[in-house]
Amino acid sequence: MITSRTQVTEMIQSAKILKGITWRQIAEVVGQSKEWSTAACLGQMAMTKAQAEDVGELLALSDEAIAWLQVAPYKGSLPTEVPTDPLIYRWYELVNVYGTTLKELIHEEFGDGIMSAIDFSMDLQRENDPKGDRVSVVMSGKFLPYKMY
For the chain, what are the domain ranges? Predict the structure, then answer.
């Protein structure tokens, strides 16, 4: 019996490793970007019935696990307030260093509001560089202005 979405994430990660499947291959089955599909597999998005069934078939998941993939998740995947994983910590550091800059520039350009993480897309690519390959991340979120009432 599955009692949490975390168990399904662990099943997916295990099957992915055992079958030698990439996130890009899973995304092709899901029919969405590798970024969205990975987030869904890691428990941060809900899949449609068809998407969940396709992933279930690819990874040999149980009907119960497939049902869990369709449940609206509790969002937020970090186990601690300050992340300890080095890669995730660098993103935390990036927001700590550049967060106020991003806030100021977004407010100057758009006004008082936020960048949506709901109406959002992201693209992660490798950039070849003779000094060492680079990670390119492009994020695009709808601007949502605060309303006066």
Answer: 5-68, 86-145
Task: Choose the catalytic residue: 116, 121, 136, 140.
Answer: 116
Q: Quick check: 74 and 5 in contact, CB under 8 A?
A: yes
CATH 3.30.1160.10 is held by the domain 86-145: yes
Taking the model in full, what pTM does it have? 0.82
The per-residue pLDDT of the chain, averaged, comes to 95
pLDDT band at 74 (very low <50, low <70, confident <90, very high): confident
Which has the minimum average pLDDT: 24-38, 70-84, 115-129, 133-147? 70-84
Q: What are phi and psi of 145, to 5 degrees?
A: -75, 145
Q: Is 57 in the active site?
A: no
Annotation: CATH topology of 5-68: 434 Repressor (Amino-terminal Domain) (1.10.260)
* Annotation says 90 is catalytic: yes
pLDDT greater than 90 at residue 143: yes
Catalytic residue among 90, 104, 134, 140: 90
Q: Which of 51, 75, 98, 139 is nearest to 12 (CA)?
A: 51
Based on the residue annotation, tell me whether 127 is a catalytic residue of this protein: no
Q: Are 85 and 93 in contact (CB under 8 A)?
A: no
